[in-house]
Amino acid sequence: MKNLLLLLLIPFTTFAQKSHLKNGDLLFININCGPMCEAINAVTEGYKSNDFNHMGLVVSENNKDFYVYEAIGKAVVKTPLNEFLSYTKQTVYIGQLKRKYRHLIPEAIAFCESQLGVAYDSDFIYDNGKYYCSELIYDAFLSSNKKQPFFQLFPMTYKEPNSQNYFPIWVAHFAEQAIEIPEGKPGCNPGGMSLDQKIRLKKMNYSFQ
Fold first, then answer.
1. At what angle do helices 105-114 and 133-144 cross, to 10 degrees?
2. Quick one: which H or E segment has residue 77?
3. 109 in the Ramachandran plot: left (φ > 0), alpha (ψ -120 to 50) or beta?
4. pTM above the 0.85 mark?
5. Contact, 54 vs 190, CB < 8 A?
6. What is the pLDDT of residues 20-37, one digit of tens each?
7. List of domains in the chain
């Protein structure tokens, strides 16, 4: 009875949810980080017009303990699955590589593991030795694909839609970084990556109890 009570006190995901996650799956979510997330959502569009402003890569240990590699906060980290899912109250989507590309997964995982502790890229500039969320995933599969791009880079924009005006949040952010706004520089985002034809997306069904 004591063990049962302990189990009831611990948040957990359903066994059904864990059973359909696999190593190398990509999780696409929409989190609320205020004006910055709102600005990202305003200029990016994800699968089936969903807003995705964060993502990570799933890894499991013995198909029992699940974690997500992500770049968030101050660095690249390996986050317990339940904690990652708690970032959002909206629908989570799983992106699974099509069968012909799944051989790339082990090395992509190894790459993410090797980047743990690398600083978060708050400059949002590609290939500067730091990582934001989708940039980590881009480089993981670049590495595993013999240095050939797997996902695509696109010109980044920090301007309001149909305007030449920058979002105020980006003006303030890059002033704090003491760098010019990297308008038009190559980069990636979770929404754009969710549209890639080399992956299949589906809704994730899970619950906390």
1. 130
2. strand 75-80
3. alpha
4. yes
5. yes
6. 899 999 999 999 999 999
7. 14-200 (3.90.1720.10)
